[in-house]
């Protein structure tokens, strides 16, 4: 096993059940991996993407509470999402996995708040945030067109882009819900 012994002589903690058997324990402590797993949240034994999306919902609630100018909020979210491309590329390489490793949840965390840009900050009630969360999980898991194709883009771009597609579907649903007076 590739576990790194602890300084105090105690045995190293075993990797979480979601950890890939071929991933050295030291890889989980690399800065890019820590950031891309949102501080290790992505190592949850089941449904790590759900935990990443939940953290994204908290982030979105914080942005709503900050009541930033919409242009500033959009610019901040674009920067956070673009940062995800090289970040997720490095993390996927460090974990020694191809495609979109389940432990990388930065994509859910960063993309979910993008969907809420169609809702004014003052209207982002707990119900709207919950709807965005559920819809994001639905579209991220089901991967409607073109999300599955976006996932095939290279490295971190593919990891992030399929979630941007899911976020676009969520934004459309939220916009329609607001237009119909449901939200």
Strand content: under 5%
User: Secondary-structure element order, as H and E?
Assistant: HHHHHHH
Helix vs. strand class: mainly alpha
Proportion of residues in helical segments: 55-70%
Enumerate the spans where pLDDT stays under 50 for 5 or more consecutive residues.
1-20
Distance between the termini: 52 Å
Shape label: globular
Largest sheet: none
Q: What Rg, in angstroms, do the CA atoms define?
A: 17 Å
Number of domains: 1
Mean pLDDT: 87
Distinct helical segment count: 7
Question: What does this 3D model show about the protein?
Answer:
- The protein has 7 helices and no strands.
- The chain has one domain.
- The protein is about 60% helix and about 0% strand.
- Helix 2 runs antiparallel to helix 5 (about 125-140), helix 3 packs antiparallel against helix 4 and helix 4 (about 105-115) packs parallel to helix 7.
- The longest helix is centred in the middle third of the chain and has 26 residues, at about 70-95.
- It is mainly alpha-helical.
């Amino acid at each position: 096993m590739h576990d790194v012994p602890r300084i105090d002589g105690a045995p190293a903690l075993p990797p979480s059940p979601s950890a890939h058997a071929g991933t050295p324990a030291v890889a989980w402590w690399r800065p890019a991996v820590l950031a891309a797993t949102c501080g290790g949240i992505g190592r949850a034994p089941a449904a790590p993407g759900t935990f990443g999306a939940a953290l994204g919902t908290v982030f979105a609630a914080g942005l709503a509470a900050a009541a930033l100018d919409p242009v500033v909020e959009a610019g901040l979210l674009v920067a956070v999402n673009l940062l995800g491309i090289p970040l997720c590329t490095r993390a996927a390489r460090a974990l020694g996995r191809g495609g979109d490793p389940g432990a990388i949840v930065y994509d859910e965390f960063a993309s979910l708040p993008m969907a809420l840009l169609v809702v004014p900050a003052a209207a982002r009630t707990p119900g709207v945030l919950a709807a965005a969360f559920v819809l994001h999980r639905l579209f991220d898991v089901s991967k409607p067109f073109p999300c599955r194709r976006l996932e095939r883009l290279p490295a971190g771009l593919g990891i992030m882009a399929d979630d941007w597609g899911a976020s676009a579907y969520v934004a459309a649903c939220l916009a329609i819900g607001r237009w119909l007076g449901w939200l």
